[in-house]
Model the fold of this input.
Amino acid sequence: MITINHYLVLSAVLFSLGTFGVLTRKNAIVIFMCIELMLNAVNLSFISLSSHLGNMDGQIFVFFVMTVAAAEAAVGLALMIAFFRNRESIAVDDFSLLKW
Amino acid sequence: MENLVQAALANVNFSAIMPSLVLVCFGMALLLIGVFSRRGRTTHIAWISIIGLVITGIYTYIDWVNPETQFGFAGHVAQDNFAVFFNIIFIAAAGLTILISDDYLKREGYPISEYYALILFSTAGAMWMASGTDLMTIFLGLEVLSISLYVLAGMFRNDVRSNEAGLKYFLLGAFSTGFLLYGVALLYGVAGTTNVADIGMYLSAHKAALGNPMTIAGMVLLSTGFMFKIAIVPFHMWTPDVYQGAPTPITAFMSAGPKAAAIAAFLRILMFGLPELHAEWGAMLWLLAVLTMTVGNFIAISQTNIKRMLAYSSIAHAGYALVGLVAANEVGLSGILYYMLAYTFMNIGAFAVLILAGKQGEENLTLDGFAGFGYKRPFLGVALCVFLFSLMGLPPTAGFAGKFYVFAGAVKAGYIWLAIIGVLNSAVSLYYYLRVMVYMYFREPTEDYSWISMPVGAVISIVIALFGVLYLGLLPDCVMEMAKMSIF
Amino acid sequence: MEIMYFYLLAAVAVASGFMVVTCKSPVNNAIALMMTFVCLANFYVMLDAPFMAAIQIMVYAGAILMLIIFTIMLLNLGTAVARKGSHSVVWATVLALLIAMQGYFVINRGEVSGITGEITGEMVKKVGHTELIAKSLFTDFLLPFEIASILLLVAIVGAVIIAKKEV
Done:
């Protein structure tokens, strides 16, 4: 029998993996992918809680999280392209003018 | 089918979102006008956006006069006095920012008409955060605000520092969004709803849920997300870099409007949603308030770039606002509202003077660059002095009254030590603010500051900010009454 | 049977999540991320949320990941040798462990709310998931829906003005 706890633990594991990635990786685009992983972990929590509680709020929240993720992807990748155009790199080590 | 439409329409209440609605309409109109305007011509767009803000202000005034709280959209917004007071702060921040922007953008070579539309959209996002009574509305408002700001911070496409500021703000902002959302998910799991008031009702009805680790974890993660946005130590790392790299008017805007919006949403969630956990979040915020004030002030001492120094000082000021939140009594909470309004005027005023004093690229905004500034440019010198006095918290300026109320709230709630640490920190801050004045008046001028022009918008903005700082400082009672009526 | 399937999928999801974090080349990261998205879509179906599974594939795997891969190709990052990064492994591990601990707490002592709403698996099958979502989206959640449209407008305008070459 799959309980709600199974899903919540899986989601916590994925979330902490994402956090670990954000803090250790240097490439901006990989960091962004790790953030997407975190958001997906949250989505899993929301949907499992929603079906456990029997109301729609959580799933609607996921709907909006996806919207936000898409909007962030568009803006974030545009920022990376602009940065790359000037610096030929997107490693956060190269954020040299302003200390990271 | 018919009854579905009826059910949908029954929830609609436009008067509850009128100010933000006006801003959004003006924002979209500005995008269109920008397309049909000649390249590089942005002055008329700036003035149209000012008209939009004035109309928003009128609607906000109508909301204030009307004592009834407007609810709408199935419990998603409540246009109460609290939201209206914060709307005033956002309108002031956006208006002053737009007034100082036009000339600056032309000087730096980026007359982009979408800039003004994005400022209006981000102000609307801030309004949804302040008036949102559901975590979903607050979250979406926060994202509208943040995404506009990522773009605005990185808008100088060919300037590496601006690119970096935008990218860094984006990465850390998205990271903090993850934490915020995870906190929301856990609270949703505990209470079965995302409505702030319903969460509070569930927690007070089910005392067992208070000891549930999920509730505590949810609260901590949610707070982490907001603290990133308010720039509370230890989540402040992005602030100095982003504030220094972003276009200066945007720095001024970010330190006033969005910060106030995050504080508003945080306050509403803590006071309505999690009042039962006051002991826990009170202890957590006590520690963070002390850390934030101390770290912000002490690092600000060693800065020579004035923009960066003001960034660190804005961290310290967020710490003073937290003091009122720890107290969580009438004086403390209304003190926060008052303080944020005062901070908006004094900080944007100080940045307005910096913008006028800067050359293209703003390499000269260091302490040495201000040598003798006060004699060569007496009006700007005096104005900057007034703003700095206010940031220090000396009477008779707005900063003094604000700090007084916040610390008085802490003393009243029994947090004597917190108030003492706050006052000591203000004393530390005297050093680095006074140092700017020493350079302005006691150093031989090395430049004649002949590049400074006095565009109408910036002068109006400095005069308004001066008026605001002195009015709030000399006659605090009237606004304080308003702030007292605005809290719950 | 179902629980075996759950464990299998969970193992794949965690393994590919781990690859997102550790793989050296961004293209491999992206492919691993795609794998995680697909696993999560499977979970959504198991949780009686087929509509969410569909938009998970369409939005995440179809749109966002394509955007990421396009950017990797555009910036020609696929072949770049990633430098070894270890600046804050300790702190990152501590933080990640803290969050994982919280997962442990959830299974041991935490308790999900006892509230049960009216939406059950049978109801989803009878009425249709899309219809249920649409009904709440356009009645109770009308305002967030409208705000989301403004959000997308801001993102479009923002992406264009940042990525454009000339003013």
Notes: Residues 106 and 112 of chain C are 9 Å apart (CA to CA). Chain C touches chain A through 85 residues (CB under 8 Å). Chain C has two domains: 1-82, 119-167.
